[in-house]
Design goal:
Chain A is α/β, with parallel strands linked by helices and about 300 residues long. In chain A, about 45% of the residues lie in helices and about 15% in strands. In chain A, about 50% of the residues are buried. Chain B contains eight helices and seven strands; from the N terminus they run E-H-E-H-H-E-H-H-E-H-E-E-E-H-H. Classes of the chains: A alpha/beta (about 300), B alpha/beta (about 220). Chains A and B meet through helix 5 and helix 6 of A and helix 8 of B.
Chain lengths: ~300, ~220
């Protein structure tokens, strides 16, 4: 059974971290990142060719992480695989004991490093959630045929509180939850006010009781990086005051960590937020410090939860 | 209508190679309306080719995609070294069907099925998926107009009504949302749209239509 699910169900404030696979074949890259994070997070979330840039597959990276003794969350995007391949990989992931799956549509390939490629988008993330839920609970494939074997997978989805139309975002989350999402990872939060208003809507719809919401955060190394994200990364809202604060800092890196910790502490107080997902892209080594200074240690250990 | 854009002149010249006598063949339907391959454009290209030293002439037929319009051209085609067709890809193939031995070259790139949104500006509207569901989405086709063909709402990149993939284009889902809100039918968006049956689309293989009552 998914450890992440146990942590969340037991009422602990969960901590997950994003792990980006390498643009190469060296398994040591994943192993090293996992060793850094072990004991500081409840699970690592491994991206599936994020931003449409080719990397080692999430599936293979998840198995490496698992061997390294850390629970993986496997991301699956619908950009590159049709329903045949997705269902097949789902069965493979279940067979090999990957306990958590995060269903996403994925960034368009024109944003990545093979913009000439053809995309798939046979289904969207909501349909993917529904297909996997039905395979697990109803024991049927998308075409209605029987699925054999036991499946105990914890299903998640992403959601952005910041994209337009803003007033539809919580309703879209409701669709994802109805389709099968049991946990939600949000887009990175820099504007806590918008996130707070989105959470109010989430609570009004009782969605926080039907799904565990993990607030996404990104530690940023510089004002320049923050400005880049503001201009180039869709679905991220960065207040100008934050950029000004980073610019004024003598040590921008340290300030970025400070901002991240403050954000975690703020969102942790919001009713309905069940955990935090730290996306320290190419800066995984900072995660232990952030977790520790945010007051999220020690992480729960096995035995502790089953006994409580 | 079918929209096309004329190929760059250097590409056309490369295709023509050492051909001398060239016929530029315009089409009087879609590509005339989108100002790419009608009589005017055929004449312009022929004149340009003459400047480049070719013995070029032009001609335009009502519809290059119908055999009855192009059969009468067979002799004319026989009299030249090469034909540059300014029709869409359908017209070009039709020319090959009546005379596969001649050098027939596409003079335009067929780009999409769409409409002129304003003077001098065309946008894609239909993908020909073979199973129209536009009415469920307030009159905006998400399959064509959403870069990811999402059926269950906007992705996380919709910003200020624009698409993250093509920032100068409207987000299809913002249009859908706004229109259904106006109709007071936002509840339609709460229903989970099931995976689409793509077998009616090009993904199901080459398509055809038969009308038994019309067959001779």
């Amino acid at each position: 059974m998914s450890w992440l699910k146990q942590v969340l169900q037991s009422g602990h404030f969960a901590v997950t971290a994003e792990v980006g696979p390498p643009k190469g074949s060296d398994p040591q890259v994943i192993r090293k990142k996992c060793d850094l994070l072990k004991g500081f997070v409840d699970a690592v979330n491994i991206t599936d060719n994020q931003t449409a840039i080719v990397r080692m597959s999430s599936f293979a990276s998840c198995l490496i992480a698992k061997d390294q003794g850390i629970e993986p969350v496997m991301q699956m995007v619908t950009r590159d695989r049709n329903r045949i391949a997705l269902q097949s990989d789902f069965l493979g992931a279940c067979a090999l004991g990957i306990p958590n799956l995060l269903c996403l549509t994925g960034d368009h390939q024109s944003m990545g490093n093979h913009p000439q490629s053809k995309n798939v988008y046979d289904i969207d993330s909501i349909q993917l959630l529904q297909i996997f839920k039905n395979m697990r609970d109803q024991k049927v494939f998308q075409n209605g045929e029987e699925v054999k074997g036991e499946i105990h997978v914890f299903l998640g989805a992403g959601e952005s509180p910041y994209a337009d139309p803003l007033e539809f975002r919580a309703l879209r989350l409701a669709k994802k939850i109805a389709a099968g999402a049991e946990f939600i990872q949000t887009q990175a939060i820099f504007d806590v006010d918008i996130f707070t208003r989105w959470m109010e809507e989430v609570r009004r719809l009782d969605l926080h009781k039907k799904s565990f919401i993990l607030a996404g955060v990104i530690p940023v190394k510089s004002a320049k990086a923050l400005r880049y994200m503001k201009n180039e990364v869709p679905g991220v809202v960065i207040p100008d005051s934050l950029i000004e604060r980073m610019e004024a800092a003598t040590d921008q890196k340290a300030e970025g960590v400070e901002v991240c910790i403050e954000t975690i502490q703020k969102v942790a107080k919001i009713e309905g937020v069940s955990g935090v997902h730290i996306m320290a892209i190419a800066w995984e080594s900072i995660v232990p410090e952030i977790v520790q200074r945010s007051g999220l240690l020690p992480r729960p250990v096995k035995g502790e939860i089953t006994s409580s | 209508m079918i929209i096309g854009e004329r190929k760059p002149i250097p590409e056309i010249l490369t295709m023509l190679g050492d051909s001398k006598k060239v016929l530029v063949l315009g089409c009087g339907t879609c590509v005339t309306v989108c100002l790419t391959g009608g009589d005017k454009e055929a004449k312009e290209l022929a004149s340009l080719l003459r400047i480049k030293g070719y013995e070029a002439d032009s001609l335009t037929v009502e519809r290059q995609c119908e055999l009855e319009f192009i059969y009468p051209l067979r002799e004319r085609i026989q009299s030249v070294d090469a034909v540059i067709s300014l029709a869409c890809g359908i017209g070009v193939q039709a020319l090959f069907e009546i005379d596969s031995e001649k050098n027939i070259y596409p003079g335009i790139n067929t780009t999409f099925m769409g409409m002129p949104v304003k003077q001098g500006y065309w946008e894609e509207r239909c993908w020909g998926c073979g199973d129209c569901i536009i009415h469920l989405f307030g009159g905006t086709c998400p399959i064509t107009r959403c870069a990811k063909s999402l059926l269950n709402g906007p992705c996380g990149g919709s910003k200020d009504g624009k698409c993250e993939v093509k920032p100068d284009r409207d987000c299809a889902w913002q249009l859908i949302y706004d229109h259904l809100k106006k109709l007071n039918r936002l509840d339609w968006l709460l229903a989970i749209q099931p995976p689409k049956d793509w077998s009616t689309s090009r993904y199901g293989g080459h398509r055809k239509m038969t009308r038994e009552d019309m067959l001779l």
